[in-house]
Amino acid sequence: MADLKDSNLELGNDSEIAQADFLLTLSSSPSFQWCNATEVLSGGCPAHFDGTLCWSPTPSGETLNLSCPGDLPHYSTHKFVFRTCSPEGTWQPAAYLGCFSDNYLEYIQIMSRSLRKIKRVSFIGYSTSLVLLIAAFILLVSLK
Question: InterPro entries recorded for this chain (predicted)?
């Protein structure tokens, strides 16, 4: 299988949909309460719960890595998710796509290719239908 960077480019919007699908979880998690109770670091990013993981306070310009959560389907706990604290002290988005198991990424790629084929066949079918409808309309008007 291609490396993750290649699959990111190939997946396009499908990866965003898959990522958003799995981020819709855990809003009442104990991690959320703990994350909001932690101390604030001056000159860096504060603790932040993004709906899946609690990111501890981090100095500006540093990158924090955490193990991928194991309680979400298709995630591999042997992989890591990274998040960078910008020099301005704001969190950059975490890339959870790296947490997906390889089988799931292959599944998304296959589904993405199938969807492109379906769209192509649909376009050809609708175009043919439109051309024949116009021809039938012209024939009907000319025979009247």
Answer: GPCR_2, GPCR_2_extracell_dom_sf, GPCR_2_extracellular_dom, GPCR_2_secretin-like_CS
- Beta bridge partner(s), residue 67: 80
SS (H, E, C) the chain: CCCHHHHHHHHCHHHHHHHHHHHCCCCCCHHHHHHHHCCCCCCEECCEECCCCEECCEECCCEEEEECCCCCCCECCCCEEEEEECCCCCECCCCHHHHECHHHHHHHHHHHHHHHHHHHHHHHHHHHHHHHHHHHHHHHHHHC
CA 143 to chain CA centroid, Å, is: 56
**Model-wide pTM > 0.90:** no
Q: How many domains does the chain have?
A: 1
Find the domain containing 13 and state its range: 4-143
CATH number at residue 128: 4.10.1240.10
Q: Which amino acid is at 1?
A: M
Residue 103 has, within 13 A of its CA and on its CB side, a CA count of: 4
pLDDT digits (tens, 9 = 90+) for 61-73: 999 988 888 776 7
